[in-house]
Amino acid sequence: MDNHILSGLLAQYEQRRQQNAQEGARRSAEIARLHPDLTALMEKRHRMVLQSVMNLFPAENQDPEKIMAEYNQKIAAMLLDRGYPADYLSPIVQCETCRDTGYFYNAASQQEMCPCLKNAYHAALSKEGGELEKEHTFENFDASRFPADPLPGTDVTQREYMEIIRQKCLSFAENVPLGRIRTLLLHGGSGLGKTYLLHCIGHHARSRGVDTMYATAYDLLMALKNAYFSRDGFSRTGESAQEYFDAQLLIIDDLGMEPLMEGVTVEQIYHLINARLSKGLYTAISTNLSRVELKQRYTERVSSRLLDPRTGLTIPFLGKDIRLMK
């Protein structure tokens, strides 16, 4: 994970908790000033909780949970009667799972990152990718960053090969939405320029007025999953998954990094790719997976559509990871 992004998000969570605590204190002070009888009832409930913790209830005819429920009902009724929401004095949190900490303990008492933090992280990662796209252009692409050594078994250098790939990606971006090639698949190891060239494609297509969407595979799957399980076709963030089906050009970065959820991942990705091909729309994808690994992970149904030479172009990225080179 990008520690810089994660640290920034955790700082936002801390700020949110502080703001919510301040708002909670303000509400309590308001009720104490305007409705002292309600405050007195809450204090009585608090003393009851302390007694319960200290095991001071008589053994018979005392049910702490039942008594607590009765107090809560009385307090909620009094709040409603005075024009407040029933939960006006409840702790303020945006996520009930982690209580706005970003983490929770699962059934095995192990700490896990909360889905809300995961979603925020990948949204920030996607946004950062969109910002990088402004700088990652075909004009700024510098093939000289790649080694001038021949690729194994050839007399073509990695530098020359990357210039050829650049031209193919530029041609794809130039021909949307009229070109024969509707699916572009960039596959190979890390640090070979796949994401950079995806950004170049997106930037160039947008500059030509092409309706373009960018998403990491993780973000895309979360949006598709949430919309699929919702009743109105919208994710919990309010985003319509239909946008991914309708954009003239959809750019998917890091296919294979999304979670493989049984009955969800393969089916949703197949549905998306198949629908876009049926509509004659364009999709550019990067992945670290090989052709064989794609077929193993996504089945023949998906891989056959991604690798179909009649409608698509598959480009392998070869050579050394330039991020590991001095």
Explain the layout of strands and helices.
Blueprint: H1 3-34, H2 36-53, H3 64-81, E1 103-105, E2 111-113, H4 115-135, H5 158-175, E3 183-188, H6 194-207, E4 212-216, H7 217-229, H8 242-246, E5 249-255, H9 265-279, E6 282-287, H10 291-306, E7 312-317
Parallel strand pairs: 3-6, 3-7, 4-5, 5-6
Antiparallel strand pairs: 1-2
Helix pairs in contact: 1-2, 1-4, 2-3, 4-6, 5-6, 9-10
Provide an overview of this structure:
The chain has 326 residues and is α/β, with parallel strands linked by helices. It folds into two domains: 3-113; 118-324, 3-Layer(aba) Sandwich (Rossmann fold). Helices cover 52% and strands 11% of the residues. The longest helix has 32 residues, at 3-34. The two termini are 23 Å apart. Residues 231-239 have low confidence and may be disordered.
Short description:
This protein is an alpha/beta fold and 326 residues long. It has 10 helices and 7 strands.
**Average pLDDT, all residues:** 86
Please identify, by name, the CATH architecture of the largest domain: 3-Layer(aba) Sandwich
Question: Structural class of the helices, strands and pairings?
Answer: alpha/beta
- The coarse silhouette is elongated
The radius of gyration over CA amounts to 27 Å
Q: What is the tally of beta strands?
A: 7
CATH topology label of the largest domain? Rossmann fold
Secondary structure tally, helices: 10
How many domains is the backbone divided into? 2
What order do the SSEs take from the amino end to the carboxyl end, as H and E?
HHHEEHHEHEHHEHEHE
What is the end-to-end distance? 23 Å
In CATH, what is the homologous superfamily of the largest domain?
P-loop containing nucleotide triphosphate hydrolases
Uncertain regions spanning at least 5 consecutive residues: 231-239
- For the largest beta sheet, what order do the strands appear in spatially? 4-5-6-3-7
Largest β sheet strand count, sense and barrel closure:
5 strands, parallel
Quickly name the level 1 CATH class of the largest domain: Alpha Beta
Helix content: 40-55%
Strand content: 5-15%
